[in-house]
């Protein structure tokens, strides 16, 4: 094992260490009872956003494609798993098994959709890919908002028109009721499960990146033509990366669906704004840097809540902070300025 | 048949609004290679300015329109100077996120100043509806004015770009910034001018949009902004005739699918058409194909 490999695995295990440490510290405070109810309510969303951020980072950072439809995959994961949980509600299986089934269904459906969308879409590049993924996200949200799905003794009934188009037989129940979504989803998610899933996602994604396949994907990102010329299957690898990312977004969706008792496809939670928000986590945390993604997701989710006392001004401050952070981290003049200051410090060290 | 024509006309009218917004997107993209996500929110600011000037200050309509255009122009140039110019040579994603930040900033400023309650915008068009074929076909004044303004904007913009020195400078900068500056073109001023024109057009689009759909909220610009962005991509981003074709096509599609297929699924249909078009022609209807070199 050479030095760079050793350094890589050190970095990887440092990430797990940090996550486990954070979990233990939060658990300690939870046991001590010194966590406000507002913060308690935020613990699961923090895990959800972190999973979304690292999974999008796989597409944006590792495969180098800009995707603006990540919330769409989360939406599919949420609705498919919630539907599955609703169907199995009275089956008498233990909750942990039910949640595992829901998790499987959510990840699988989002992953399969990722492949289906990826096949045509990944032929496009750059901004065109961005707009098409955005369009797909909106289509998914729009379709689910118009979908009616009910169950009775005669079987399953679907409609895209309105609730009158289906006449449910005796004892029939609505599962998805158009814009009202799903009500009465069982609450399986909690902080421990969220954290376990986050760590598992982290393990999977980091090992994927440092595997042979992951390095091939990065080679394609850096120079597609050169990678193609040494015989890498470009489309297949890109598709693999895209669908893995979609599947993890689906897992985040499963957590989301089982965290609240009702699920609706609103622009706020599954619209393009949400996709953009996840992209903001990735870019601000550093493209390709998993630890940074999680940190940015946590900071940017907590920031509006911390500023809650400022009421109306909080989103304003949030926007200003976002612009300033981008200017400070990315503007060439600022970078030069930062380097200048750093150099001065270094010189002092040398002379001292 | 008459209802079809009326849906078609209102589709063209909505499409003209999209086209005018899409122009701002496409010009800025052509010259600065960035997606200006805040463009829809500049439109919203323009509509609020027009609303205040006309409804609260009681200015005459032409003055209110001019004031709104002036405010938007200043805002567009200011945004470019403060938020985008420092990032000109930075990563494209960084600029995109900054634009999103500017969009949030404008929306939340409007939320603070005007609250989330919708303001009812008084129509700026004072033409009575036109009745054709014995009252079977009624065309509203807004529809007529929007279509005419859209066509005028198209003609003047094309003339401006191809016949004036400033327009030629814009073309030169969008082709090659370095070469243009060597030829004595002031690149910074040209980019600022592009933002100014795009923002002024956004204010016109905002007034037309709010005249036809008179409910004004801080998020009024968001969805038309995204749709116009889609229109610009549909027509081939960077191409001015493409933005027009894309915008009008999108407007017609949206209105017809709302009328004949499903009002709930109209967005899904519009976006599906975009995807199909891009799969057949990956750079949009009038986009240029760029060959890649090793």
Structure description:
- Chain A: Its main location: membrane.
- Chain A: InterPro entries: ABC_transp_permease (IPR001851), LivM-like (IPR043428).
- Chain A: It holds the Pfam family BPD_transp_2.
- The complex is a heterodimer of chains A (352) and B (294).
- In chain A, helix 7 (212-222) crosses helix 9 (234-257).
- Chain A has two domains: 1-35; 44-276, no CATH class.
- The longest helix of chain A has 30 residues, at 3-32.
- Chain A has 14 helices and five strands.
- In chain A, a hairpin with a 2-residue loop joins strand 1 and strand 2 (155-159).
- Chain A has helices spanning 3-32, 37-62, 70-87, 95-121, 126-146, 191-210, 212-222, 224-229, 234-257, 267-270, 272-285, 290-306, 314-330, 332-351; strands spanning 148-152, 155-159, 173-177, 182-183, 262-263.
- In chain B, 52% of the residues are buried.
- Helices cover 72% and strands 3% of the residues of chain B.
- Chain B has helices at 2-32, 39-56, 61-84, 92-114, 141-163, 165-175, 177-182, 187-212, 222-235, 240-260, 266-280; strands at 119-120, 130-132, 137-139, 215-216.
- The radius of gyration of chain B is 19 Å and the shape is globular.
- At the A-B interface, helix 5, helix 11, helix 13 and helix 14 of A face helix 4, helix 9 and helix 11 of B.
């Amino acid at each position: 094992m050479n030095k760079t490999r050793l350094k890589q695995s050190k970095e990887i295990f440092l990430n797990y260490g940090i996550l486990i440490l954070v979990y233990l510290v939060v658990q300690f405070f939870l046991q001590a009872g010194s966590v406000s109810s507002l913060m308690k309510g935020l613990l699961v969303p923090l895990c959800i956003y972190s999973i979304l951020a690292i999974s999008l980072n796989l597409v944006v950072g590792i495969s180098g494609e800009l995707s603006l439809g990540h919330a769409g995959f989360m939406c599919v994961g949420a609705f498919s798993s919630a539907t599955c949980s609703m169907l199995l509600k009275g089956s008498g299986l233990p909750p942990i098994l039910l949640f595992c089934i829901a998790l499987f269904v959510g990840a699988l459906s989002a992953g399969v959709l990722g492949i289906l969308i990826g096949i045509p879409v990944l032929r496009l590049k750059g901004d065109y890919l961005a707009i098409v993924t955005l369009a797909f996200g909106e289509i998914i949200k729009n379709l689910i908002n118009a979908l009616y799905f009910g169950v009775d003794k005669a079987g399953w009934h679907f409609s895209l028109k309105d609730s009158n188009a289906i006449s449910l037989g005796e004892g029939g129940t609505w599962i998805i009721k158009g814009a009202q979504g799903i009500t009465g989803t069982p609450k399986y998610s909690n902080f421990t499960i969220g954290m376990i899933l986050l760590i598992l996602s982290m393990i999977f994604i980091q090992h994927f990146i440092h595997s042979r396949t992951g390095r091939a994907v990065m080679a394609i990102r850096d120079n597609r033509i050169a990678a193609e010329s040494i015989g890498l299957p470009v489309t297949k690898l890109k598709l693999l990366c895209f669908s893995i990312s979609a599947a993890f977004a689906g897992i985040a969706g499963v957590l989301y669906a089982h965290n609240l008792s009702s699920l609706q496809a609103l622009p706020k939670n599954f619209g393009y704004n949400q996709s953009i928000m996840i992209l903001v986590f990735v870019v601000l945390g550093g493209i390709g840097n998993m630890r940074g993604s999680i940190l940015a997701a946590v900071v940017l989710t907590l920031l509006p809540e911390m500023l809650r006392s400022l009421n109306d001004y909080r989103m304003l401050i949030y926007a200003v902070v976002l612009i300033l952070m981008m200017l400070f981290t990315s503007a060439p003049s600022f970078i030069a300025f930062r380097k200048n200051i750093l150099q001065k410090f270094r010189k002092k060290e040398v002379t001292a | 048949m008459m209802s079809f024509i009326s849906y078609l006309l209102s589709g063209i009218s909505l499409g003209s609004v999209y086209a005018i917004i899409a122009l701002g997107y496409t010009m800025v993209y052509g010259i600065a290679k960035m997606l200006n996500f805040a463009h829809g929110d500049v439109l919203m600011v323009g509509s609020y300015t027009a609303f205040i000037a006309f409804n609260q200050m009681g200015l005459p309509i032409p003055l209110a329109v001019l004031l709104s255009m002036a405010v938007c122009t200043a805002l567009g140039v200011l945004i470019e100077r403060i938020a985008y110019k420092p990032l000109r040579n930075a990563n494209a994603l960084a600029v995109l996120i900054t634009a999103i930040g500017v969009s949030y900033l404008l929306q939340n400023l409007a939320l603070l100043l005007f609250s989330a309650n919708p303001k009812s915008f008084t129509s700026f068009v004072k033409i009575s509806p036109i009745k054709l074929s014995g009252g079977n076909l009624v065309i509203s004044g807004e529809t007529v004015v929007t279509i005419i303004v859209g066509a005028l904007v198209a003609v003047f913009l094309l003339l401006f770009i191809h016949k004036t020195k400033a327009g030629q400078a814009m073309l030169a900068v969008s082709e090659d910034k370095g070469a243009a500056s060597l030829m004595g073109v002031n690149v910074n001023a040209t980019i600022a001018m592009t933002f100014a024109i795009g923002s002024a057009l956004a204010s016109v689009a905002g007034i037309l949009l709010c005249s036809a759909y008179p409910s004004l909220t801080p998020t009024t610009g968001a969805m038309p902004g995204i749709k116009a962005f889609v229109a610009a991509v549909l027509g081939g981003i960077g191409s001015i005739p493409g933005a027009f074709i894309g915008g009008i096509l999108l407007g017609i599609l949206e209105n017809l699918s709302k009328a004949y297929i499903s009002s709930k699924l109209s967005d899904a249909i519009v976006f599906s058409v975009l995807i199909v078009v891009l799969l057949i022609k990956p750079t949009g209807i009038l986009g240029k194909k760029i060959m890649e070199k090793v």
